[in-house]
C-alpha cells in the first residue's frame, strides 16, 4: 500500500514530486507492505486462552517428563539386554588395558571414544546415562567410565563450536571465542584431574558418595537438593548483598571445609601427627559426624508408608525380609512333613506320631 512516511531530511527522495516538508518533518510516499494473519497456526494451544507463561510451563513439564521417561527406558533396556555372554564380551573389550608400558594409553583412547560417541548423539547426558547402568551391572569399571565421561565433556563442546561456525560474519569472532572458552575449560579440567593418577579425585569421591547412598537411600535426594538448588541459591543471595558480604561469609566457610578435608585425610593416613583430640571426631555431637541419627529421624518419619513405600523405607524392607523368612520356614516345614508322609505310604507302614515329626523338625531342619 502507498502511505505517507517520515524520512530524515538528509535522505534522498525518490522523486521531488513525492516529497514535502512540514516544519522540521520531511514526508514522502512509499510502498509499505503489511501482513494480515488470516489463519491461525496449527498447535495444541491455538484455541486456548492461557498466557504464554502458562503454556511455556506446561511444555517444560511435558518435555522433562518425556526426557526422564526416555532415560529410564534406556536404563531398563540396557539392564535387560546386556546380560550373560554379551555382558562378559563387552566387559573384556572395554576394560582391557594395553600391555606394559602402554597401559596409560587405554584411558586416552577411552576419552576419544567418549568424545566421538557424544559428537554422534550430540548429547553428553544421553551418553553418560547410557554408561551409568553398565557401571551398575559391572560391565564397565568405574576407572574406565571416568575417561569416557571426560571424553563426553569434550564431545559436548562440538555443539557450541558448530553453532559458532554457523554464525554470521559480523559475530563469528565473538561466538567462536566463547565456544573455544567452553572447549578449553573442559580440557583444563582433564589436565587437572586425569594425567596424574593421584589427582583422579572424582573416582574416590564418587565411590564415597555411592557407598553412602547405598547405606542411606535418602542421601541421593539430599545431595541433589544441596548441590544443585540450596548451595547456588545461597551463593546467589549473598552476591545480591554485595562482594563484601559474599567474601566475608564464603571465605571462612571454604577455609573450614578445607580444614575438615585435611583433618580427615590425616586421620586416615597419619593420625599420630594430629593432637589427641583431633585423631577422631568423637568430641563432636554424633549428629555432626555421622548420618545415623539423621537416618533414624527420616526413617521414623516415613514409618507410616507401610507396605506401599516401594522399597524406600528400611522398616518396610525389614518387615518384608521377616515375612519372607517366615514363609520360607513354613514352606520348608510343609515339604518336610509331606515328604515323610509319602515315604510312609510307600513303605506301607504307620506314620510316625506328630510329636516325633515336630522333634525332628526342631532338631534338624536340613534333614530333607
From TrEMBL:
<feature type="transmembrane region" description="Helical">
    <location>
        <begin position="126"/>
        <end position="143"/>
    </location>
</feature>
<keyword id="KW-0812">Transmembrane</keyword>
<keyword id="KW-0406">Ion transport</keyword>
<feature type="transmembrane region" description="Helical">
    <location>
        <begin position="53"/>
        <end position="78"/>
    </location>
</feature>
<comment type="function">
    <text>Involved in actively transporting phosphate into cells via Na(+) cotransport.</text>
</comment>
<comment type="similarity">
    <text>Belongs to the SLC34A transporter family.</text>
</comment>
<dbReference type="GO" id="GO:0044341">
    <property type="term" value="P:sodium-dependent phosphate transport"/>
</dbReference>
<dbReference type="GO" id="GO:0031982">
    <property type="term" value="C:vesicle"/>
</dbReference>
<keyword id="KW-1003">Cell membrane</keyword>
<feature type="transmembrane region" description="Helical">
    <location>
        <begin position="243"/>
        <end position="265"/>
    </location>
</feature>
<keyword id="KW-1133">Transmembrane helix</keyword>
<keyword id="KW-0472">Membrane</keyword>
<feature type="transmembrane region" description="Helical">
    <location>
        <begin position="216"/>
        <end position="237"/>
    </location>
</feature>
<feature type="transmembrane region" description="Helical">
    <location>
        <begin position="174"/>
        <end position="196"/>
    </location>
</feature>
<keyword id="KW-0915">Sodium</keyword>
<keyword id="KW-0325">Glycoprotein</keyword>
<dbReference type="GO" id="GO:0030643">
    <property type="term" value="P:intracellular phosphate ion homeostasis"/>
</dbReference>
<keyword id="KW-0739">Sodium transport</keyword>
<dbReference type="InterPro" id="IPR003841">
    <property type="entry name" value="Na/Pi_transpt"/>
</dbReference>
<keyword id="KW-1015">Disulfide bond</keyword>
<dbReference type="GO" id="GO:0005436">
    <property type="term" value="F:sodium:phosphate symporter activity"/>
</dbReference>
<feature type="transmembrane region" description="Helical">
    <location>
        <begin position="150"/>
        <end position="168"/>
    </location>
</feature>
<keyword id="KW-0813">Transport</keyword>
<dbReference type="Pfam" id="PF02690">
    <property type="entry name" value="Na_Pi_cotrans"/>
</dbReference>
<keyword id="KW-0769">Symport</keyword>
<protein>
    <recommendedName>
        <fullName>Sodium-dependent phosphate transport protein 2B</fullName>
    </recommendedName>
</protein>
<dbReference type="GO" id="GO:0016324">
    <property type="term" value="C:apical plasma membrane"/>
</dbReference>
<dbReference type="GO" id="GO:0005903">
    <property type="term" value="C:brush border"/>
</dbReference>
<feature type="transmembrane region" description="Helical">
    <location>
        <begin position="98"/>
        <end position="120"/>
    </location>
</feature>
